[in-house]
Amino acid sequence: MIRVRLASDADGPALLDLFGRTPLEAGTSFVLDRSPDFGALPRLRGEHRTFLALDEAGVVGTASALWHDVEDAGRTVRVGEIADLRVDRRIRGGRAAAYLLAAVGNIFAERSVDWVTCLIGDHNRAARTLTEGKAGLPPLARLTRYASVHFVAWGIPAVSRRRGLEIRAAGPEDGVVLSSLIEAAAARRRFVPRPLLAWPDPLGSHRAWIAFVHGVPVGALLAWDPDSVRRIRVVSYRPADLPLRTAVAVASALGLAAPLPVPGGVLRLLATRWLAAPGQPDVAAELVRASMRAAAKDGMNVVQVNLDESDPALRALPASPRSTYWSTLYGRPLRDTDACPPGVFPKPSVFHTDVALV
After folding, report:
1. Same domain, 78 and 225
2. Of 18, 58, 60, 288, whose CB has the highest number of CB atoms within 10 Å?
3. Model confidence over 91-123: pLDDT tens digits?
């Protein structure tokens, strides 16, 4: 018999064990290692509650409800997200997922959540049942699709392709410039969290680069090293990545890149949270090259560039070894009407979610 209860701090080891035995599929099979503190990652995104499904053997499933207040056409809207859904392989197809989703739905109602959302990797077909309207949650519609482009981190020469273009690492004094550039990119999106940016990062896990043309700031890239709260532990690679893995092996033999981890190892990753160069996709590409050089110097494997499918920068990214993984944000309002007045945003709207923090 399955029962569901709220998780406590004492359940951390059981949650970490469940994550370790329920890999995700994005072509490459991997698990998310969130030791030693399972709750550290969701705390970065707002408030959350994690629920456990248990049977006679112990913890067999989990799901988290996350929520935070965002800006939407000048209004404050509370957005909830279904996250961390895992069910042990031996009981999939049973009622555990439905019970967990019912618990998530109840907490959303209790906390007056306006929208419910869920980000699902396109390879994760089993998770799409979340969108079908189960356990009291409504059916979810497709909102926005995201590309996570994984570039091999290596020392690409710093040769400017645009006259007058200079890129440098952001320092503590660059908070105002960095914030203004990211605000310009955020203006076209719905569900942007506030405050938008804390710079310099008090935890030291973020890095940023600013692009100047003839001394005028025109673009910025903000990236995050998640190693302190979440690590990607590879289970197996997809066959389509063999050419990329071969290229990395050659580059690492020449001292140009860090070798990719063997199955069971951790993929060191620098993930973009904002790539902001409005109307200048060539500048966005140069910012990515700068981050690749820095990541390679720090012994990282990959720079993950996260962009929504409508971003012009997606088509201007560097012609460099990469793998691309797609995910889709699903959602719908829980109230009778959308909190955003009609006509305020162009349709289709671009909904923001922080893919780097998933």
Report:
1. no
2. 288
3. 776 788 889 999 999 999 999 999 999 999 988
